[in-house]
Write a structure and sequence with these properties.
Keywords: Signal. It comes from Terriglobus saanensis (strain ATCC BAA-1853 / DSM 23119 / SP1PR4). By secondary structure, this protein is of the alpha/beta class. The chain folds into 3 domains: 68 residues, Histidine-containing Protein, Chain: A, CATH 3.30.1340; 70 residues, 2-Layer Sandwich (Histidine-containing Protein, Chain: A), CATH 3.30.1340; 74 residues, 2-Layer Sandwich (Histidine-containing Protein, Chain: A). 41% of the residues lie in helices and 23% in strands. It contains 6 helices and 13 strands. The strands form 4 sheets. Strands 1, 2, 3 and 4 form a 4-stranded mixed sheet that branches. Strands 5, 6, 7 and 8 form a 4-stranded mixed sheet that branches. α4 links the parallel β6 and β7. The longest helix has 41 residues. It starts with a helix and ends in a 6-residue tail after the last strand.
Length: 255
Amino acid sequence: MKKSMKLLSGVFALSLGLFAAPTLRAQDKIADTQIQEEVAKALSNKRFSAVQSNVKNGMVTLTGSVDVYSVKEDADHRVHRQKGVTAVRNMIEVSSSSKLSDTELRDKLAEKLSYDRVGYGTTAFNSFTIGVQDGVVTLGGVAYGPTDKDSAISVVSNYPGVKDVVDNIEVAPTSPMDDRIRLDVARAVYGFPSLNKYAIDPAKPIRITVISGNVTLTGVVNNQADKDAAGIRANSVGGVFKVTNSLQVAGQKQD
Protein backbone atom coordinates (compact mmCIF):
# COMPACT_ATOMS: atom_id res chain seq x y z
CA MET A 1 0.00 0.00 0.00
CA LYS A 2 2.80 2.37 0.94
CA LYS A 3 4.65 1.54 -2.26
CA SER A 4 1.49 2.30 -4.25
CA MET A 5 1.07 5.65 -2.51
CA LYS A 6 4.70 6.57 -3.23
CA LEU A 7 4.30 5.60 -6.86
CA LEU A 8 1.13 7.67 -7.18
CA SER A 9 2.73 10.68 -5.50
CA GLY A 10 5.71 10.40 -7.85
CA VAL A 11 3.46 10.29 -10.89
CA PHE A 12 1.46 13.22 -9.52
CA ALA A 13 4.65 15.26 -8.98
CA LEU A 14 5.86 14.40 -12.49
CA SER A 15 2.55 15.47 -13.99
CA LEU A 16 2.79 18.79 -12.13
CA GLY A 17 6.28 19.28 -13.57
CA LEU A 18 5.04 18.64 -17.08
CA PHE A 19 2.20 21.12 -16.70
CA ALA A 20 4.50 23.68 -15.02
CA ALA A 21 7.10 23.68 -17.83
CA PRO A 22 5.19 25.96 -20.22
CA THR A 23 4.68 28.43 -17.36
CA LEU A 24 8.46 28.58 -16.75
CA ARG A 25 9.12 29.20 -20.43
CA ALA A 26 6.56 31.99 -20.41
CA GLN A 27 8.31 33.52 -17.43
CA ASP A 28 11.63 33.37 -19.29
CA LYS A 29 10.08 35.26 -22.20
CA ILE A 30 8.78 37.90 -19.84
CA ALA A 31 12.26 38.17 -18.25
CA ASP A 32 13.83 38.72 -21.68
CA THR A 33 11.26 41.41 -22.42
CA GLN A 34 12.08 43.15 -19.17
CA ILE A 35 15.80 42.89 -19.86
CA GLN A 36 15.23 44.34 -23.34
CA GLU A 37 13.46 47.33 -21.82
CA GLU A 38 16.27 47.95 -19.33
CA VAL A 39 18.93 47.59 -22.02
CA ALA A 40 17.05 50.09 -24.19
CA LYS A 41 17.07 52.57 -21.30
CA ALA A 42 20.78 52.00 -20.67
CA LEU A 43 21.54 52.72 -24.33
CA SER A 44 19.20 55.68 -24.71
CA ASN A 45 22.11 58.13 -25.05
CA LYS A 46 22.48 59.57 -28.56
CA ARG A 47 25.98 58.08 -28.79
CA PHE A 48 24.26 54.70 -29.13
CA SER A 49 21.65 55.83 -31.65
CA ALA A 50 22.93 53.35 -34.27
CA VAL A 51 23.18 50.43 -31.83
CA GLN A 52 20.59 47.65 -31.72
CA SER A 53 20.11 44.96 -29.09
CA ASN A 54 18.45 41.57 -28.96
CA VAL A 55 17.87 39.42 -25.86
CA LYS A 56 17.49 35.66 -25.77
CA ASN A 57 17.61 33.63 -22.55
CA GLY A 58 19.36 36.50 -20.81
CA MET A 59 22.08 36.85 -23.45
CA VAL A 60 22.23 40.27 -25.08
CA THR A 61 23.56 40.64 -28.62
CA LEU A 62 24.63 44.14 -29.60
CA THR A 63 24.88 45.13 -33.26
CA GLY A 64 25.11 48.37 -35.24
CA SER A 65 27.88 50.94 -35.32
CA VAL A 66 29.56 53.68 -33.27
CA ASP A 67 32.07 56.41 -34.04
CA VAL A 68 34.89 55.40 -31.68
CA TYR A 69 35.93 52.26 -29.83
CA SER A 70 35.34 53.74 -26.36
CA VAL A 71 31.61 54.02 -27.12
CA LYS A 72 31.51 50.32 -28.07
CA GLU A 73 33.13 49.47 -24.74
CA ASP A 74 30.79 51.78 -22.84
CA ALA A 75 27.76 50.07 -24.40
CA ASP A 76 29.15 46.71 -23.33
CA HIS A 77 29.70 47.85 -19.75
CA ARG A 78 26.25 49.44 -19.48
CA VAL A 79 24.52 46.29 -20.67
CA HIS A 80 26.55 44.03 -18.41
CA ARG A 81 25.31 45.99 -15.39
CA GLN A 82 21.65 45.28 -16.12
CA LYS A 83 19.87 42.79 -13.86
CA GLY A 84 19.19 39.43 -15.49
CA VAL A 85 21.87 39.75 -18.20
CA THR A 86 23.85 36.51 -18.33
CA ALA A 87 26.23 37.41 -21.16
CA VAL A 88 26.87 40.08 -23.79
CA ARG A 89 27.82 39.38 -27.38
CA ASN A 90 29.28 42.64 -28.61
CA MET A 91 29.17 42.74 -32.42
CA ILE A 92 29.12 46.54 -32.69
CA GLU A 93 31.34 47.84 -35.48
CA VAL A 94 33.48 50.94 -35.15
CA SER A 95 32.88 53.00 -38.26
CA SER A 96 35.21 55.94 -38.63
CA SER A 97 35.84 58.42 -41.41
CA SER A 98 39.55 58.16 -40.61
CA LYS A 99 41.60 56.96 -43.59
CA LEU A 100 44.86 56.54 -41.69
CA SER A 101 47.05 53.55 -42.48
CA ASP A 102 48.16 51.34 -39.59
CA THR A 103 51.56 53.03 -39.58
CA GLU A 104 50.06 56.51 -39.58
CA LEU A 105 47.63 55.56 -36.81
CA ARG A 106 50.45 54.14 -34.72
CA ASP A 107 52.49 57.33 -35.11
CA LYS A 108 49.51 59.51 -34.18
CA LEU A 109 48.80 57.43 -31.09
CA ALA A 110 52.46 57.46 -30.07
CA GLU A 111 52.42 61.25 -30.19
CA LYS A 112 49.22 61.42 -28.16
CA LEU A 113 50.56 59.06 -25.52
CA SER A 114 53.86 60.92 -25.28
CA TYR A 115 51.98 64.01 -24.05
CA ASP A 116 49.48 62.13 -21.88
CA ARG A 117 49.59 63.10 -18.19
CA VAL A 118 52.41 65.59 -18.71
CA GLY A 119 52.58 67.66 -15.53
CA TYR A 120 51.69 64.81 -13.16
CA GLY A 121 55.34 63.91 -12.55
CA THR A 122 55.13 60.31 -13.77
CA THR A 123 55.59 60.74 -17.53
CA ALA A 124 59.26 59.73 -17.49
CA PHE A 125 58.38 56.59 -15.54
CA ASN A 126 55.93 55.23 -18.14
CA SER A 127 57.14 53.27 -21.15
CA PHE A 128 54.47 52.09 -23.58
CA THR A 129 54.70 50.12 -26.79
CA ILE A 130 52.13 50.36 -29.59
CA GLY A 131 51.30 47.89 -32.32
CA VAL A 132 48.55 48.39 -34.92
CA GLN A 133 47.13 45.84 -37.33
CA ASP A 134 43.96 46.49 -39.32
CA GLY A 135 42.98 49.19 -36.84
CA VAL A 136 43.39 46.89 -33.82
CA VAL A 137 45.79 48.50 -31.34
CA THR A 138 47.92 46.42 -28.96
CA LEU A 139 49.34 48.35 -26.02
CA GLY A 140 52.28 46.97 -24.06
CA GLY A 141 55.10 48.17 -21.85
CA VAL A 142 55.07 49.29 -18.24
CA ALA A 143 52.97 51.92 -16.48
CA TYR A 144 54.07 53.57 -13.26
CA GLY A 145 50.61 53.07 -11.73
CA PRO A 146 47.00 52.05 -12.53
CA THR A 147 45.98 55.65 -13.24
CA ASP A 148 48.69 56.00 -15.89
CA LYS A 149 47.60 52.73 -17.50
CA ASP A 150 43.90 53.69 -17.52
CA SER A 151 44.72 57.09 -18.99
CA ALA A 152 46.77 55.54 -21.81
CA ILE A 153 43.97 53.12 -22.68
CA SER A 154 41.45 55.97 -22.64
CA VAL A 155 43.56 58.06 -25.03
CA VAL A 156 43.75 55.19 -27.52
CA SER A 157 40.12 54.08 -27.12
CA ASN A 158 38.84 57.57 -27.96
CA TYR A 159 41.00 58.09 -31.05
CA PRO A 160 39.22 57.90 -34.44
CA GLY A 161 40.21 54.89 -36.51
CA VAL A 162 40.88 52.56 -33.57
CA LYS A 163 38.68 49.48 -33.98
CA ASP A 164 39.76 47.51 -30.92
CA VAL A 165 42.27 47.73 -28.06
CA VAL A 166 44.31 44.85 -26.67
CA ASP A 167 45.67 45.73 -23.24
CA ASN A 168 49.02 44.10 -22.44
CA ILE A 169 50.30 46.95 -20.26
CA GLU A 170 52.03 45.87 -17.06
CA VAL A 171 51.65 48.01 -13.94
CA ALA A 172 54.81 48.32 -11.89
CA PRO A 173 54.23 46.96 -8.36
CA THR A 174 54.14 49.43 -5.50
CA SER A 175 57.57 49.62 -3.90
CA PRO A 176 59.16 52.41 -1.81
CA MET A 177 62.59 51.07 -2.81
CA ASP A 178 61.73 51.27 -6.52
CA ASP A 179 60.32 54.78 -6.04
CA ARG A 180 63.59 55.87 -4.47
CA ILE A 181 65.57 54.29 -7.32
CA ARG A 182 63.37 56.00 -9.95
CA LEU A 183 64.05 59.42 -8.48
CA ASP A 184 67.77 58.76 -7.99
CA VAL A 185 68.17 57.47 -11.56
CA ALA A 186 66.26 60.49 -12.90
CA ARG A 187 68.56 62.84 -10.99
CA ALA A 188 71.66 60.96 -12.12
CA VAL A 189 70.61 60.90 -15.78
CA TYR A 190 69.10 64.36 -16.17
CA GLY A 191 71.71 65.96 -13.93
CA PHE A 192 74.49 64.93 -16.31
CA PRO A 193 75.40 67.92 -18.56
CA SER A 194 75.12 66.13 -21.91
CA LEU A 195 71.79 64.54 -20.95
CA ASN A 196 70.07 67.54 -19.42
CA LYS A 197 68.60 68.47 -22.82
CA TYR A 198 66.28 65.44 -22.66
CA ALA A 199 64.42 67.04 -19.78
CA ILE A 200 63.46 70.11 -21.84
CA ASP A 201 60.50 68.48 -23.57
CA PRO A 202 58.57 66.70 -20.77
CA ALA A 203 56.79 64.52 -23.34
CA LYS A 204 59.98 63.08 -24.81
CA PRO A 205 62.26 62.18 -21.94
CA ILE A 206 64.58 59.27 -21.40
CA ARG A 207 62.04 56.94 -19.85
CA ILE A 208 62.92 55.10 -16.67
CA THR A 209 61.01 52.02 -15.57
CA VAL A 210 61.93 50.16 -12.39
CA ILE A 211 60.66 46.79 -11.19
CA SER A 212 62.26 45.17 -8.14
CA GLY A 213 65.44 47.21 -8.54
CA ASN A 214 65.81 46.38 -12.25
CA VAL A 215 66.02 49.51 -14.37
CA THR A 216 65.08 49.75 -18.05
CA LEU A 217 65.86 52.86 -20.10
CA THR A 218 63.75 53.55 -23.20
CA GLY A 219 63.19 56.47 -25.55
CA VAL A 220 65.20 58.12 -28.29
CA VAL A 221 68.53 59.93 -27.88
CA ASN A 222 70.59 61.90 -30.39
CA ASN A 223 73.70 59.74 -30.50
CA GLN A 224 75.45 56.64 -29.16
CA ALA A 225 77.46 58.70 -26.67
CA ASP A 226 74.25 59.89 -24.98
CA LYS A 227 72.93 56.34 -24.86
CA ASP A 228 76.11 55.07 -23.26
CA ALA A 229 76.23 57.96 -20.78
CA ALA A 230 72.64 57.31 -19.68
CA GLY A 231 73.43 53.65 -19.05
CA ILE A 232 76.53 54.49 -17.04
CA ARG A 233 74.68 57.09 -14.95
CA ALA A 234 71.83 54.68 -14.19
CA ASN A 235 74.31 51.98 -13.15
CA SER A 236 75.92 54.37 -10.69
CA VAL A 237 72.79 54.58 -8.51
CA GLY A 238 72.86 52.62 -5.28
CA GLY A 239 70.40 49.73 -4.96
CA VAL A 240 70.12 49.12 -8.71
CA PHE A 241 70.41 45.41 -9.49
CA LYS A 242 70.55 45.63 -13.26
CA VAL A 243 70.24 48.23 -16.02
CA THR A 244 68.81 47.32 -19.43
CA ASN A 245 69.68 50.08 -21.86
CA SER A 246 67.02 49.95 -24.60
CA LEU A 247 67.45 53.55 -25.72
CA GLN A 248 67.26 54.06 -29.47
CA VAL A 249 69.68 56.30 -31.32
CA ALA A 250 67.92 58.65 -33.73
CA GLY A 251 68.42 57.65 -37.36
CA GLN A 252 70.00 54.34 -36.40
CA LYS A 253 68.35 51.20 -37.77
CA GLN A 254 67.08 48.92 -35.02
CA ASP A 255 67.72 45.17 -35.02
